[in-house]
Amino acid sequence: MKDQEQKEQKEQKEQTGRQTIFSGIQPSGILTLGNYLGALKNWVMLQDSYDCIYCVVDMHALTVRQVPAELRRHAYEALAVYIACGIDPDKCILFVQSHVPAHAELSWILSCYTMFGELSRMTQFKDKSAKNTDNINAGLFTYPVLMAADILLYQANLVPVGDDQRQHIEITRDIAERFNGIYGPTFTVPEGYIPTTGMRIMSLTEPEKKMSKSDDNINAYISILDSRDAIMRKFRRAVTDSESSVRRGEGKDGINNLMKIYSCFTGKDDSEIEALFEGRGYGEFKTAVGEVVADALAPVKTRYDELMSDKSYLEGIMKRGAESAAGIAARTLSRVYRKIGFTQIKN
Ligand code: TRP
């Protein structure tokens, strides 16, 4: 199986010269600086060396109760944020999941090759059902199958995701291998592309916790669209330790985090930063971090505002993306239908 898998992936790579990357983004509100540094900047880089497909996964979002008007708005916002951050719709395929019916279609097929026991062991299902005790719906349970369908439809080689998605990539591989084992090579078995914990940006108020947009305290995170004033204020208030010299160290989570952020935007390493802020206090350093972040995010916000005021442009992107995605997805789905024994009528 391993050999076959490698052979297939090699063949695909030879045909197109490039590997395929697929990732999904939940349309659940504006992203944070953590998402930007941990994932988005990377995705922008990847689009030059891979065939990248990025999907706004509105069908996944439905597993928790949504306000319809908000869900709709969030899909536009997600698209606008990604483009504003540098994802180029001319270089990659950017589309909305519900616009390509093949996701739901393949998901049903794959659910017949996924075991109840496997899904019951998923930690995200256990966590989410513990949090939403009044809405433990079947979609929450079969969420990983839909995710597998997303990835397998496009024969993706690599799937850039956060560490929390590791188990979902694992089950996708298991489903693909199981299907390939029964019907012969059909799906590329994907690999996760997971950033090292070193790329993790921490909360500004509790730096031992990951920065999260669902934090109750808005001072804990920087939104990609925060104003310069808000950014400066949040960094000035960032929790640090009782020392005063800017130096990386054990138990100095706050300063370590600020140094990492500063380094991401300036390219300076720890010793350069330490030398630069030698003899200057935390206050000055925090202001400097706020400034580099605000400078970098200002053009993102400007571009975002432009895009959000041009709905028809965004709709054009959605349409174009959906058409390209549907073309690729249809090929995989038709192959699957043939292999499993569905009759197919030519039109
Ligand atoms: N489950 C992913 C998350 O919450 C989102 C997602 C859905 C996804 N389908 C995907 C990610 C396919 C990568 C590939 O982050």
Tell me about this structure.
- 56% of the residues lie in helices and 6% in strands.
- With 347 residues, it is mainly alpha-helical.
- It folds into two domains: 2-193 and 311-340, Rossmann fold; 218-306, Tyrosyl-Transfer RNA Synthetase (Orthogonal Bundle), CATH 1.10.240.10.
- A three-stranded parallel beta sheet has the order 1-2-3, sandwiched between helices.
- Helix 2 links the parallel strand 1 (20-25) and strand 2.
- The two termini are 36 Å apart.
- The model has no long low-confidence stretch (mean pLDDT 93).
- The site of tryptophan (TRP) has 13 residues, from strand 1 and helix 8.
Major sheet details: 3 strands, parallel
Helix/strand/pairing category: mainly alpha
Inertia-based shape: elongated
> Residue-averaged pLDDT, rounded?
93
List the helices and strands and how they pair.
Blueprint: H1 2-16, E1 20-25, H2 33-46, E2 51-56, H3 58-61, H4 68-84, E3 93-96, H5 102-111, H6 116-120, H7 123-131, H8 138-153, E4 158-160, H9 166-183, E5 191-193, H10 228-236, H11 253-266, H12 270-276, H13 282-308, H14 311-340
Parallel strand pairs: 1-2, 2-3, 4-5
Helix pairs in contact: 4-13, 5-8, 5-14, 8-9, 10-13, 11-13
The structure holds tryptophan.
The site of tryptophan has 13 residues, from strand 1 and helix 8.
